Amino acid sequence: MSNISVLIVDDHNIVRQGLRALLLAEGDITIVGEAQTGREAVQAAATLHPEIVIMDLAMPLLNGWEATRQILKATPNAKVIALSSYNNEDYIQQAIAAGAAAYLIKQTASTDLVKAIREVRCGNAFFSPAIAMTLRTQTCKMGDDADGAQPESTPRASVELTQREAEVLQLIAEG
Questions:
Q1: Average pLDDT over residues 99-112
Q2: Do residues 70 and 20 touch, judged by C-beta distance below 8 A?
Q3: For residue 108, what is the DSSP state?
Q4: Would you tell me which of 9, 21, 105, 117 could form a disulfide with 41, CB atoms 3.0–4.6 Å apart?
Q5: pLDDT of the residue at 90
Q6: Are 37 and 61 a contacting pair, CB within 8 Å?
């Protein structure tokens, strides 16, 4: 099997350098590029065609969720691993809705990131242990309703924005 090609996307230089060093120590992973903004990530993915994109969510010039959507639309064979410092349920759900195949929090052990890359390449989903527990608890709550009624959580409206609309919204959010 050939090396796994990875694009690292994070707005913090030291995080990108650390991820690069960690992943280059593995014999079967090749770093094909890095990006520090969401827009750079979309362009790099379109040019480099990585198998795996490690995506920070909170980034300037296009957040990680929208960058994930755009990357997967332009490069459907890519798999995105969301790597974030946030373990908020909304962040997790938004990442999954955007198409992320995995969600890891930055406090996760480095071995879990390497395992996630290999699992996602094989077509599996992967979540940090803390995230998996959150998702499991959330699923159990939804299934606990004895009378079969719908859970009390409000369903989210699925709104599809054009690329330009998403960019305008992002710029408004950034002030």
A1: 89
A2: no
A3: S
A4: 9
A5: 82
A6: yes
pLDDT tens by residue, 117-161: 999 999 888 888 767 666 666 555 555 554 444 444 444 555 566
Name the helix (H) or strand (E) containing 92. Answer: helix 89-98
- CA atoms of 128 and 6, how far apart (whole Å): 19
| Count of CB atoms situated within 10 Å of the CB of 30 | 14
Note the pLDDT of residue 154.
44
* pTM higher than 0.90: no
pLDDT for residue 170 = 65
Two tokens at 24?
């280059």
Residue appearing with tokens 């969301």: 82
Non-local CB neighbours of 140 within 8 Å, separated by 6+ positions: none
Q: Check: CB of residue 169 under 8 Å from CB of residue 62.
A: no
Tokens linked to 63: 């957040």
- Taking every pair of C-alpha atoms in the chain, what is the biggest distance, in angstroms? 53
For strands 52-55 and 79-84, give the pairing: parallel
Contact by Cβ (8 Å): 48, 33: yes
**Residues near 66 by Cβ (< 8 Å), separated by ≥ 6?**
38, 98, 166, 170
